[in-house]
Each structure stands twice: as C-alpha cells, then as structure tokens.
Amino acid sequence: MRNKCYFRPALLSLAMKKIICFSLFALITGNLLAQHFSQEAFANRRHSFAREVRTGVAFIPSVTKEGRLNKNFYYLTGIDKPGYVYVFDMQERGENGILFAPDQLPALEALIEQTKTDKKRLILSAFSSDFNQKYFYQAPFLNADSIFVYKRAIKDEEEIVVIREACRITAEGIKHMYKNMRPGMTEQDLFALMEAKFIQEGGNGIAFQQVASGNLGTTPHAGVTDKVPGADEMIVLDIGALKDKYTADVTVSFTISGKFTKEQQTIYDIIYKSLDTGVKAMVMGNFHARVEQSAQQVIIDELYKLGLITNKDSPWQRSFWIQHGFGHHIGLDVHDVWYDYLRMIPEDRRVFMPGMILTFEPALYFPKGGLDARPQRLARLVSEEDFMVFANQIKAVYQKYEGFAVRLEECILIKADGTNENLTKMSLK
C-alpha cells in the first residue's frame, strides 16, 4: 500500500501534515482496518475510486445521515469508526487521498474552504446528507454513491474469500439446526441453534433472520417468534451470517419431521425447478432479467397445470403469484447496492459479470384468506370484480395449499470461465 500523503503547501501547516500522515499510518498498523483484508486490497479500491473522480474533490464521511456506518467509506478504508472523512483530489494528490481523523477537524475544514474558493467540482455521498448540509449547503455535487454501485457490484478476490466464508458459516449453522431440532421447539429455539453455531464457526454476527412457520411464512420478512411449529408444518428460514461485515443470504423451506405432505412436496418441487433453472443460467454475459423471467415462467407454467392460473398471458395473474424479484447482489449489505443498481443501470445492460455474487430466490406464498379480496399491489392492474371471478375459479385448488409458503435461495458467484459457483449449496446439490 502506498503510504504517501499529498497536501497543498499553502493549505496546511507542516505539523498538521505530519499529524495526518502519522494518523493514517497509526490506523493501518494499529489494526483498526478490517482483519480479514490486506492493506493492499483497500489501497486498490481507493486508487480505483480516485481514477473515477478524475477532476474535482470527493469527500466521503464514515457515517451516514442516520449515524450508521457508511458502507462506502468502509469499502475504501476498512475502518469502522465515527468522525472520519476520506478526501480525494486527483489533480492535487493523484490516486492518494487524505484520511482525516476526528481530532483533525480544523485541517479538514481548511481543505473544505479551499475547495469552495477554488470552485472545484464536488463529489459527495448522498448517504451523508448531514455532512453535506453542514459544509456544502445547497452546493451542486456529483453523487459519489453512483461510482460505488459499479465498484461494489464486482467483488475483488479478498471480498470473494470473505463472502464465501460467510456462506459456509451460514450453511453450517443451518445444518447444525437440522441435526438438533426437535418437535416442541419454538422458532426462537431454532434460531438459537443456528446462532450458537455461527459463533462457533467464527461468524461476527447476523445480518438478518427469519424463522417463520405455517401461515407466518407467507410474509416475506416475518422475523422470528415464540410460536411452536407443528412437526409437519412448513417453515421458511431466511438467514445470513456476517463475516467481517460481509453477509450471506440463504433461504430454506423444511419441516421439523423432515417429511412433506403431498401439497408441500408439489410446491417445493416447483420452486426447486425454478431455482435450478435460474442458477444454471447465471453465467457471464447472460442478462439478469431474462434469467429471472425464465425461472418465473417455470412457476407460471406449473401453476397453470395445477389450475391456479386461468390465463398464462395475464400480467396481473403473473403478478399475483410472483410477489418479488428472484435475486440481488450480496456483500456489505444484504441487498448490496441492489436498489441503486436497478435504478441506475438500464435493464439491457444488467448482465452477469465475473466477480458478481448474487442470490437467486424463487418463492410461492399461499396466505390464509389470500383470495378474499384483491391485493392492494394489484389495484392498478385488475378490477376488484375481475379479481373475484379469478378467485372463485381457483379457490378449490388454492385451499389445498392455503397457509404455507416455499422459498429457496442460494448465493452464486459468477466466474470468468463462463461457469458459476454455488457458495451455499443448501437446496441445490
């Protein structure tokens, strides 16, 4: 890692230059950086980001407007501390930035004032609006977060190693739960089995959790309750262990007895087939939307055979069953840069690229009372009258499956050789 610091001579005193350079060195050698990444990895990310900045000055604070860790700052530095700001100015300092610690506020403010005087282009993080408003109130700026969307979507080799470990830990926790679960346990008991195993395997926490049985599983983010699942009740488990702030994301659907009813097996097989179809197509150069649509079509075709769809060409009937997307990036966030990725990158450019790690998660939900009224999400797609006609047509079949859900989710690494790697292997063997 290059430890050089570049400063404008008229801006900072020699003493302040020494303080800042020393502080950066102390942070690195003092092991404040993420323990499972090399200094070179963070240096490479900073240099890559700086090259995108080109002209102008970028200010990246360590906290967001909500006071939480700015994941983009962490991505560049590996530092999880409030009050820091990283500054990039390619014209003045090349690819090396300046890291300002909390006790270096006067030097930071001097640099900010000089930036304003020079009327340089600003690159700020929209996640850090408090910082922006304090120092650059109403000033026009380029959103630095747009740069991070492209950078963070492609994982470097060290990120892949850590995410692979998070996936391994998550899978081990689920397998440990399978081995030790017993009838009479609550959803919280099942979660506790996994949590203990995560710690034993070296995990650093849990990004999120759902252990939802029966009708609770028909809600995509139901959490964990003290409900005691029946031995043959379908449970939808969605969980991700953390490793050095990077998360996995795995969903399995199972019963404590280990056996499925005929109806549960039917829906499980449909979701498994959809998952298998999607994952096989998740290779370099394929379009995300096309892969998702092909996996969704598997579900639509199978539901039509069962009599749960009356018109396969109906967009609103498709939307009734397909309630959410079938995948997303993972990384420092569970939906890592995903929503910005969808917003910023046109659909015809969303291709799978080497280094991407994404989930794939088809699902079907059969909530109790799901046909009693038109769902709000369909209000603009179909009239209440037409929906009730459809509901009456499929009601007898729907009742066979009412009160449970099936969702499966794996974490997939896109590789440069045209293949992929399943990092979790909980459903697809």
Describe what you observe in this structure.
- The relative contact order is 0.10.
- The chain has a 5-stranded mixed beta sheet with strand order 3-2-1-4-5. Strands 6, 7, 8 and 9 form a 4-stranded antiparallel beta sheet that branches. Strands 10-13-14 form a 3-stranded antiparallel beta sheet.
- Strand 13 (410-414) and strand 14 form a beta hairpin.
- With 429 residues, it is an alpha+beta fold.
- The chain is built from 14 helices and 14 strands.
Average pLDDT: 90
Shape: globular
Sheet with most strands: 5 strands, mixed
Q: Radius of gyration in whole Å, from Cα?
A: 25 Å
User: Helix segment count?
Assistant: 14
Helix percent reads: 40-55%
Structural class: alpha+beta
Strand element count: 14
Short description:
The chain is of the alpha+beta class. 42% of the residues lie in helices and 14% in strands. The strands form 4 sheets. A 5-stranded mixed β-sheet has the order 3-2-1-4-5. Strands 6, 7, 8 and 9 form a 4-stranded antiparallel β-sheet that branches.
List keywords for this structure.
single chain; 429 residues; alpha+beta; five-stranded mixed β-sheet; 14 strands; globular
